[in-house]
Design a protein that fits this description.
- The complex is a heterodimer of chains A (655) and B (167).
- With 655 residues, chain A is mainly beta.
- Chain A folds into 2 domains: 449 residues, Methylamine Dehydrogenase, Chain H, CATH 2.130.10.10; 130 residues, Immunoglobulin-like.
- Chain A is globular.
- In chain A, 51% of the residues are buried.
- Chain B folds into 2 domains: 47 residues; 114 residues, Cytochrome c-like domain (Cytochrome Bc1 Complex, Chain D, domain 2), CATH 1.10.760.10.
- Chain B starts with a helix and ends with a helix.
- With 167 residues, chain B is mostly helical.
- Classes of the chains: A mainly beta (655), B mainly alpha (167).
- The interface between A and B is medium-sized, with 22 and 17 residues.
Chain lengths: 655, 167
């Protein structure tokens, strides 16, 4: 009895201490925001983030997939760069993805991802991203999370005002940053002015498969077309591009392209041009550009070289193109969710300029033109101006929207994000970034329906934010809670490459569609082996084709003889697994390319050119089962002039 | 040079000595194992029956299949489908008449209930965790897991019908 009493007292005492603990932690919570913020980004083990963020890889050429609010990276999707991690750009099936009119290009600079939309809202079917250096647009499937298509853009150079899509994904748009001679030709650089052209490319997107095809290119004056965004809602059918270097300088642009007080936002009525083109307008000009398409059933990409492209001279389509004067080399060109406001982020201007779509239409109707440039009407600045945000910071770059009537602009020089109100143009809040912010992203922030809970800023300078790792380091992103009046910094997380823009989306829109594995029954790869009977080795001159299968935990065949120095061995390997997350890898000693990582149901081919006589091992690189270390095989390489017969086996000694 | 040589010799000798030590240890483990096998002989036959040879027709296993009706006459249409599915999805690890990576299905219906067979095809991960016999089989086959090939229930039933034709 006594014992019970004592233990009860002890229990009460313990409980009391717990409660008091809770009380004290609560009161300290309200004081110390940081602990509260930790909870806001904490995703318990096994739980899912609420949003996907697709962050461009910049000079990595790829696209990275993150979770929000945790800031955890889930995947790097190879797009424009060879990726030895899974063999993308090395395997025979994926090599054609990197084909261009310049031959195979192993790298690019990827900038602005944009998720497909229906009725102005994110539909989560595909994400598009531009290759800046060798102009290309890629389409990544958000079912497979793999690059499914890449199209090269002719007559373009520095594909920067890309890859933004119209509100029903009718077009993905690619504008050139550098104007060039069109067609390309040998001419003096000093003759740039008046002779170079800037191509704005409208690529149609097949509504069912997403397949891309260049519908037309508008050959604009030789300015630099920096960024762009689609009109939406009331301005659907229009597209807006910022320009700089309207001076048309070809040297020391740092000085020479900053002479004009105002550059332009080019407003393009693409519906009008589409109609013109549908009625046979424009002209086909000779061109040479690659169209690379991955076929999910053959698991193989093919390249088609296209030989012509339709070009449109803007002055041939009256009423289709106008210039909106915008102060001081505008960079970002952002359109609010209603489609009324077009924000020009004049990077050398003290103020943010916001144009009104309604006022623009009105000025056009009344033909109130201030002049023209190469036959394209220039509207009066005052006639189209909706308002300006006075001196919000230094060096405005990009603006996103929360769907609650607020805009968020990054300021590179003053290193901050400024929240301001559309319509009243008043500054509501400002928060520092660490450091020198470039782009920012709100999930759906470039659509008619933003999901304004989070915003993240992508910073150009990381400096002292993380443990030092030598002179070269990853950049940092910073996540803010924007659900309240004031922004709240929640989290720093490192990003890969140099992220420019990013696109984010609530997870539930896409996560249920994510593919788990490829169905073997749908595999139409010409070199597949989908059961043991189909495994074999065939010689065709110096080419040796190995039809191989892999399953936990063996290769079939795993003993191969009769290969000779000087042969070209094609390992065509099919992963026979039909379950989620059972990829197998394949590596063979001395391969001059990479490994293969093969998803269940997929076939991939690695080419191996044996140079030395011997018996050489190959093995699985992706830990697959308790017997993964046993997943290996041997290939015997004989001298070039030997007559070792071609043989293969699995599970018995080779005879 | 000479000193290096000397050093090498010393190193070499130490290596040999340490190697010798290890070998002795190995011997110990051998004798330990031998003991166990002699012990086993005393318990005799029961321990000797391999899990793959055990007969247990009442165990339905765990998984989606609760009961299967086998018609007296084998359905040839199903057999044809089952043979095709087996060839495509199973032959990487199974031979019909001999032990391969996994056990042979020949005569399986004399040892296992139809439900157990289908559950092993349709829910191998669950079976290996929860069914005692499946657990033992995993050990007999070196821990090599039965892959879930995501067969439809119809395909799995057809494979079962095909197994009925394998004596």
């Amino acid at each position: 009895m006594k014992k019970i009493i004592t233990s009860t007292i002890a229990l009460v005492a313990i409980l009391a201490s717990f409660t008091s603990c809770n009380n004290s932690s609560k009161s300290s919570n309200s004081g110390a925001l940081s602990s509260n913020n930790a909870e806001k980004v904490y995703i318990a083990p096994g739980e899912h983030d609420s949003h996907y963020a697709f962050i461009s890889g910049g000079y990595s050429g790829n696209l990275t997939v993150y979770g929000l609010p945790s800031g955890r990276m889930f995947k790097e999707i190879p797009v424009f760069s060879q990726f030895p991690t899974n063999g993308y750009g090395y395997s025979e099936e994926t090599k054609p993805m990197l084909e261009t009119s310049f031959g195979p290009i192993p790298w690019d600079d990827s900038h602005h991802p944009d998720i497909s939309q229906t009725n102005g809202e994110l539909d989560g079917r595909w994400i598009f991203i531009n290759g800046n250096n060798t102009p290309r647009i890629a389409r990544v499937g958000l079912r497979s999370f793999e690059t499914e298509e890449i199209i090269e853009i002719p007559n373009s150079a520095g594909n920067h005002s890309s890859s933004f899509i119209t509100e029903n994904t009718e077009y993905v748009v690619a504008g050139t940053r550098f104007s060039v001679p069109v067609p390309q030709r040998d001419m003096p650089i000093k003759d740039y002015k008046g002779n170079f052209k800037g191509a704005l490319t409208f690529i149609s997107v097949d509504p069912e498969h997403g397949h891309m095809d260049i519908k037309f290119q508008i050959l604009m004056p030789g300015f630099n077309y920096d960024l762009s965004h689609p009109g939406r809602g009331k301005s659907h059918g229009w597209f807006f591009f910022t320009t700089y270097n309207t001076e048309e300088a070809s040297t020391l642009l740092e000085v020479n392209a900053s002479q004009n007080d105002k550059d332009f936002i080019a407003a393009i009525n693409w519906k009008k041009i589409e109609e013109y083109v549908n009625n046979g307008g424009g002209k086909m000009m000779p061109a040479n550009y690659a169209h690379n398409l991955m076929d999910e059933s053959t698991h193989t990409a093919t390249t088609t070289m296209k030989k012509e492209v339709r070009v449109v001279n803007p002055i041939d389509v009256p009423g289709a193109v106008y210039f909106l004067p915008t102060p001081k080399s505008p960079h970002g060109c952002d359109v609010d969710p209603s489609g009324e406001y077009i924000v020009g982020n004049g990077k050398l201007s003290a103020n943010l300029t916001v144009h009104s779509f309604t006022k623009m239409l009105d000025a056009i109707e009344k033909e109130k033109f201030a002049g023209e440039a190469y036959g394209i009407p220039i509207l009066n600045f005052e006639d189209v101006l909706a308002g300006s945000v006075e001196q919000p910071g230094l060096g405005p770059l990009h603006t996103e929207f929360d769907g609650q009537g607020n805009a968020y602009t990054t300021f590179f020089i003053s290193s901050e994000v400024v929240k301001w109100k559309l319509g009243t143009w008043e500054v509501i809040d400002r928060k520092p970034t660490y450091y020198s912010v470039g782009h920012l992203t709100i999930p759906g922030g470039n659509s008619a329906k933003p999901f304004g809970k989070y915003m993240f800023a992508m910073n150009k300078i990381t400096k002292d934010r993380y443990l030092p790792v030598g002179p070269e380091m990853e950049h940092s992103a910073q996540l803010y809670d924007i659900s309240g009046e004031k922004m709240e910094l929640l989290l720093d997380f490192p990003t890969h490459g140099e992220p420019h823009y990013a696109a984010a989306i609530p997870a539930e829109i896409i996560k249920e569609n994510s593919l788990k594995f490829y169905k073997l029954a749908n595999n139409k790869h010409p070199y597949k082996a989908t059961n043991d009977e189909e495994t074999r080795v065939e010689r065709d001159g110096k080419n040796v084709h190995v039809y191989m299968t892999m399953i936990r935990s063996h290769f079939s065949p795993d003993n191969i003889e009769g290969v000779k120095v000087g042969d070209k061995v094609f390992f065509h390997i099919t992963n026979l697994e039909q379950d989620f997350d059972v990829p197998h890898g394949f590596a063979v000693i001395g391969a001059n390319n990479a490994e293969l990582l093969i998803a269940p149901g997929q076939t991939r081919t690695l080419t191996w050119e044996p140079k030395q006589v011997g018996v050489w091992p190959f093995y699985c690189t992706d830990f697959c089962s308790a017997l993964h270390q046993e997943m290996q095989g041997y290939i015997r390489v004989s001298a070039e002039n030997s007559d070792t017969p071609l043989k293969w086996s699995m599970g018995e000694d080779i005879e | 040079m000479k000193t290096t040589l000397k050093l090498m010799t010393v190193l070499f000798i130490t290596l040999i000595v340490s190697c010798g030590g290890k070998e002795e240890k190995k011997k110990e483990s051998f004798s330990y194992k031998k003991k166990e096998t002699t012990e086993q002989t005393t318990t005799k036959k029961e321990a000797k029956v391999k899990p793959s040879e055990k007969i247990d027709l009442s165990n339905k296993g765990v998984g989606p299949i609760k009961s299967v009706e086998l018609a007296a006459v084998i359905d040839q249409e199903m057999v044809t489908l089952g043979a095709d599915v087996f060839k495509k999805m199973c032959t990487a690890c199974h031979r019909t008449d001999k032990k391969f990576i996994g056990p042979a299905p020949a005569g399986i219906l004399k040892r296992r209930s139809p439900e157990w067979i289908m559950n092993m095809i349709l829910a191998p991960e669950k079976m290996v965790k929860e069914d005692p016999l499946a657990k033992e089989l995993l050990m007999e086959f070196n821990g090599s897991p039965m892959a879930n090939q995501n067969l439809s229930e119809k395909d799995a039933r057809a494979v079962l019908e095909y197994f009925r034709t394998l004596e």
